[in-house]
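Hi R.,

Here's the chain you asked about this morning:
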Amino acid sequence: MSLFKDPRDQDPREPELPRWIFLHALRVTIGRTSVWAVAASLIALLAFAQALPWLGWFDRAIGAAYAPGELLVELEENFRFDLRASRAALDASTQSAGGALALLAMLIGAFSAGGWLQVFLERTEGESVRKFFYGGARFFLRFVRVLVVTLLVLQLLRWVLHGRPWEWLVLEKLCGLSKPDMELFESEQHARTVDLAQTFLHALGFALVMAWADFTRTRLAVHGTRSAVWAGLCTAGAMCLHPVRMLRPLALLLAIEVLALTLAAALLAQLEGSLGADSSAWTLVAFVTTSLGVHIARTIVRGARYSACVLATRDVVRPLSRPDPWKRSVGGPGGPRYPIDGDEYAVSM
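And here is the predicted structure, written out as tokens:
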């Protein structure tokens, strides 16, 4: 029996697939206000922890030696020179802490993925935050394994596009260079074209690996399995057989995220250009508000990716032969499930 679903095999008890999956995913995710607020706060706390030492250092360094707003636009040369030693020491210490915080951010991402999937797969109303934390804990170890596999795949991608395979196949065989040295190209335009192609392929490969990781996590949650490697192989096969149906919603969500980042960057550039010694507090409030707005928007899009992955996975992948635990039901996280069958409720033992 095929692992992939024929569109004609739609279960009549399942809700019909939305026409525009990415719009449905955005609408559903925006409606989960408490969930995206918690998910955004987890990462914002890490950013605050990284920024706090710098805030304390600037407060001690500036003190009463400068007029209010004097260093708002840029740090003057004397300030940089006089405090270069303490600033270098703080920079070294925060870089070390930054590595640990980056690892913690990836682990929080794995936890949040389990929370989002628990919320979307249960399809019940109420107690969303409780289900978010329950799902995060439930799938955490499985999704950490997916994270490790993803990092290995990304490292392989980097080696292929920036290591010996690229040098041998592209630079030596296709471009005819005697050795893999970009300076041997006859014109600078040829070197820029090759470099642009390498950058584009790396960006495309990175996006595909991230999509594959999201679908792998979704497959593990939908089927309730534990093997990250097997789920990843099955997901890769499904993406090869159904690239449009699986990747189109994520591509549209990525376009929305890029648009939001572009608009925010333009607004921040305007605000930065208006900074000066006479700038009001409202300018700084606008800076903070815009930055937080971008972070919240990216968190919502991240949640919408998992909602879209759930819909796309159920559209193309056959369920396992055992009963689907995610059929429409009610019940608290971790407790008994009560399937809904018309107006009657039956206890699932």
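One quick note: Strands lie at 329-330, 338-341, 344-345.

Cheers,
M.
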